[in-house]
Amino acid sequence: MQEDIDKVLSETKEEMSHAIEHLRHELTKVRTGKASTNLVNEILVPYYGTPTPMGQIANISTTDARTITIQPWEKSMIEPIERAIFEANLGLTPQNDGELIRLSIPALTGERRAEYVKKAKALGEEAKISIRNTRHKAMDVVKKAVKDGYPEDAGKRVESKIEDTTKEFGKKVDDYVAAKERDIMTI
Question: What is the average pLDDT score of the chain?
Fold first, then answer.
């Protein structure tokens, strides 16, 4: 029975870590007014009939703080990439010079910044919900084990560990969201 409890603890940490990684990944997609290759890296472009992430068919880089350049490995891919950027609805207009595509990132207004901060906080709340759901599942397993004969005091210690882990990961979520908020609000 102790092995089951240990397994629940490790699975709980693993699931909470996945929630944090997902949050970090999603936060990279929130615009900050600075050029970032993450904005376009995963946009799907039809490549010989197969939707393929842009990062796999082109060299994506930032030339300065406000410009992203996309240089496809095949010239024939310029127009499909341009179309995919329009369809992704990023609010960016691609500039095509026949060799590469430039995206100019406009400066964010105060209103847009507030909107992006709200989006970052919503992503943080989703991560916290995921973490709390994981905690709830783990607590249920421990309570069932106590009912089935696992020592009650040991069960309380395990529940305490789960709570501490939940608080630790909740703090990480707050830290990531606060860092993103600072990044967005920095002009």
Answer: 89
User: Hey, how many other C-beta atoms are within 10 angstroms of the C-beta on 126?
Assistant: 15
Q: Is the pLDDT of residue 32 over 80?
A: no
Residues 6+ apart with CB under 8 A from 143: 155
DSSP string covering the chain: -HHHHHHHHHHHHHHHHHHHHHHHHHHTTS--SS--GGGTTT-EEEETTEEEEGGGTEEEEEEETTEEEEEESSGGGHHHHHHHHHHTT-S--EEE-SS-EEEE-PPPPHHHHHHHHHHHHHHHHHHHHHHHHHHHHHHHHHHHHHHTT--HHHHHHHHHHHHHHHHHHHHHHHHHHHHHHHHHH--
- Tens of pLDDT along 134-185? 999 999 999 998 898 889 898 899 999 999 999 999 999 999 999 999 988 8
The model's pTM: 0.76
Domains in the chain (CATH in brackets) are 2-28+109-185 (1.10.132.20), 37-104 (3.30.1360.40)
**Which pLDDT belongs to residue 187?**
65
